[in-house]
Amino acid sequence: MSVWKKTSLLLLSMLLLASIAACSWGKSDKVRVAEVTRSIFYAPQYVAISEGFFEEEGLEVDLTTTWGGDQTMTTLLSDGADIALVGAETSIYVYAQGANDPAINFAQLTKTDGTFLVSREKVEDFTWDDLKGSTFLGQRRGGMPQMVGEYVLKDNGINPRTDLNLIQNIDFGNIASAFASGTGDYVQLFEPQATLFEQEGIGYIVDSFGTQSGEVPYTVFMAKESYLEKNDDTVERFTRAIAKAQQWVHEQPASVVAESIQPFFDDTSLEVIESVVERYRSQGSYAQSPLLKEEAWYHLQAIMDEAGELPAQVEYETLVNTDFADRIE
């Protein structure tokens, strides 16, 4: 064999090995995430995708919106997703049903309620007593918005069963349209709907359930216990990416955050997204760390108990895994 042929074969072999190595080094672990709804409330999650924080950790995130707590948990438990972004109360419901492979909360994304009290009329010097005798369009029973809503009403001296006309039989997706069509004097709404109603003159934000309810693990990332055990390194990298995004959201101007997440909200203007990001951030809704605190866990159960929805008291260590958040501190 000629020297030229030997050299060519050697170069070809080296190129082939380099190509294989490059493919191996560039390979990302895929993580399927099911989010309970699409919301600016979850801005750090979208930032982790758009700013490449997941990619930096060697992760490829496949995000699916599953629209509702029940559907999200069904998707997670049936292995349709690896990780779910949903209210922490759902893990308690599943555990109370005797799950053999329970959903474990490992990273907190939001730490307050995300809804606002919207009045049909402009109210000067609003007080919660103004709700007495009114018709209040609330959220569906058993979900965190409804439970926090009633907790805040009671905390402000309002009996939701006797002091006002409480409507809770309208599906989540139809609450805003029901209010817009004339139902209710007050309504409990998420953003950006609350801000859009203000812009359109349909309603006016008079208070925040998030500032009234205190810190609570309102939305968390959870996975089945078996997944956490088998994918320790992947979950740690996932948690690190979320932590980076949480800090980024707090450090960057609201306008920059809005530009980063706008591709996830095609039907919402950049101006509205910026306004909502600033509102949530100013009231401390975005957690600055993925660590779910023990006192917040028990505050969640106190709210559930007050609403008559707590199936059983569950210890913090049973359904909360802080290992991943602790490692990245």
UniProtKB/TrEMBL annotation:
Q: Which UniProt keywords apply?
A: Signal
Where does the record place it?
Periplasm
Q: Which PROSITE patterns match?
A: PROKAR_LIPOPROTEIN
GO CC terms: periplasmic space
Q: Matching Pfam families, A to Z?
A: NMT1_2
User: For this UniProt entry, what is the primary localization, expressed as one broad class?
Assistant: periplasm
Q: Which residues form the signal peptide?
A: 1-24
State the similarity comment.
Belongs to the bacterial solute-binding protein SsuA/TauA family.
Protein name per Swiss-Prot or TrEMBL:
ABC transporter substrate-binding protein
Q: Which organism is it from?
A: Alteribacter keqinensis
